[in-house]
């Protein structure tokens, strides 16, 4: 044994390494000569940061040497993927753990109040104007989906973006998102081209790429021309848990019609777990040569966009907006055009989308926080923090509804629109680091040890926390059914678009009582905005509660349609199909499925029902031209 130590010491001196820094970690010292000079520097840093316990169980040189090198590969990765490196991570962890032990309120000194934002009423003139402004701006936008989380709470083993966004067609969330972005791209381009047409004749030679549009003007005259669309970039943040399955889903479906070069996957790394209040890094229980890691949260997206160079690329390409969204909000794109319009019109640096919030609902509350020193910010206060904050600051009832039946604090749905210029400037200063928090589960009231290891976490909506008071931070509130809910529509609002939709019936699936509405789905290219949809529905249309309608085509016009059953229309882009008359058939019914019945695919089981296709009217139009379907 002594000779091993001697020879290691000799080798160290030959390599010019002074091993004194590792005196208190003899098992590390014995192995130092196995390491590269970069790895020795990392070892020094770990020792300086009080992490000698990591080497306590290391074997003598000659045993597990590759595992030891792999340990330092992991340390190098943890170090490079965190802004400021592991040293900074450990330092911040110690501060936050000390605050947590002392029971310090993260909002100390701040008083909450209800902020004012833009409250939109679906379908009124203001809403329509914002939608138009938003569609115009969309060509200057990039979209970012945070999809690094697993559906653990959902009790689902796959990636959440592969789940059906609705059951009628089974279109998955990722397909829905991509088709919405492509439809926005086309609509935005079309608007720009219409403006160009107004000022000059179209010069076909300037267009590099061929795409054909049918333009529907108010008096139903069609213009047809060839144009070039600026591609809207789409970035997806994945994690080790979701990366390969997201890539496979895209590749096996030809990117759902998007160009592969238009989509960028950015993988977030996990962060080191912490064993105690001194921020000693936790060992992986299954491997003494690995540090245990856990997800750091969706806040990583900012650092990744910055460090990958994507933000700069978008900025250099002249883009103006970055829109962030989450993995399973199938209604989101119904709210995007108007809220982007709000950002553009009000010149918001940060715009958060919100819906009315019921007190104690598990969505964060958008709050104005005013500090005793005069500072003030509009920020999400997470659902678990809102009630204690209110009680501690003069609201003895805490998180309760007001006279409207809702919490006075709008509910954060975590869809953010950031203006790219100011966002880049801020990230140049912070590198994308977001204020973190720690949530240790203590063993007892002494708060000296944890039930299990913890880690630092960060949330993407905390980005405004570091912004100067001059930053224009606002929010946009929309109806829940429009922006954030399972697919449903209420008769009053649907009637505004020209259709009478029957009331829902109550049914129970998987033990949960749900309202079952008629199932109406359409491709994003059929209609993304209120105006587009209104233009395609005319006369007196009605849809009974048991009905299903699927519109797959671009130019499908509903005129005096009375639907009581199932109707499926598919058409190529340059076919105009007018659908009216009385469609009556047995339709599609919803059949309960037991969530324990493993003979049924998992994604159907967790929904609790499947579709029974009894009878439908299905028509497909594969040739250009004008058609009429009036049974
Ligand atoms: N996600 C990642 O990409 N990486 C991670 O490490 C973790 C998550 P959850 P959460 O809209 O109802 C948020 O778990 O965080 C992705 C808001 O904080 O679904 O509990 C993940 O894939 C809250 O204020 O939600 O709560 C998913 O796409 C409220 O608005 C997204 O991040 C709530 O969402 C959100 O992750 C809500």
Automatic annotation (TrEMBL):
Organism: Citrus sinensis (Sweet orange)
Entry superkingdom: Eukaryota
Name of the protein: UDP-sugar pyrophosphorylase
